[in-house]
Amino acid sequence: MPRIVDHDQRRRELAETVWALIREHGVEGVNLRLITVRSGWSSGAIRHYLPHREAVLTFAAEHMARRIEARFQGISPTDDPLSDFLKLVWEVLPLDDERRAESQVWLAFVGLSVSDPGIADTQGVAYQALNEALRHIFEGFSRLGWLRHQTPETAACEIQALIDGLNLHLLLGQITPGAAWTAVEGRVRQLIGPP
């Protein structure tokens, strides 16, 4: 009887391998040989999923975006939309091992994308996914009359910039999670609230 292969599980395993290698060697250090050694897969099996380097990097960025989206969807809405939104923002800060790994991979992409347009395009996948989610949320706040003095696009850009900065400061150990929370909560409460 042929073995049933869970392709989604294999892709997740491969993404975890690529992420570990990015964290250890940087984006520029990831290659098929290292992926083969680390994963224990044959180069042919890897090429089945990821035929070239750009596919590897795009895959790693898309996997990050999917994980964040899944955490967003896992938050049950309450009667307090402001609190719900703060929970969403909290989910993208590096406050546990999983989110720290995501942030380290994100930062590796950001660092290399300054000089490599191909990486910049790959990094755009994760940026656009988060920006679109934030913009959609702020459009909802705008319909409620809760968005103060901003367009949804401007508010999404501002909060995303705050998230990016806090990610960097948390990864470098320059601020505490409590200080990050104070910054996020303070700015969010300035941007949105009941009329």
Describe this structure in words.
The chain has 195 residues and is an all-alpha fold. It has one domain (54-191): Orthogonal Bundle (Tetracycline Repressor, domain 2), CATH 1.10.357. The protein has 9 helices and no strands. The longest helix has 28 residues, at 117-144. The N and C termini lie far apart (64 Å). The model has no long low-confidence stretch (mean pLDDT 86).
Summarize the structure.
This protein is mostly helical and 195 residues long. It has helices at residues 7-25, 32-39, 43-49, 53-73, 81-90, 97-113, 117-144, 152-171, 177-191. The radius of gyration is 19 Å and the shape is elongated.
Secondary structure topology:
Layout: H1 7-25, H2 32-39, H3 43-49, H4 53-73, H5 81-90, H6 97-113, H7 117-144, H8 152-171, H9 177-191
Helix pairs in contact: 1-2, 1-4, 1-6, 4-7, 5-9, 6-7, 7-8, 8-9
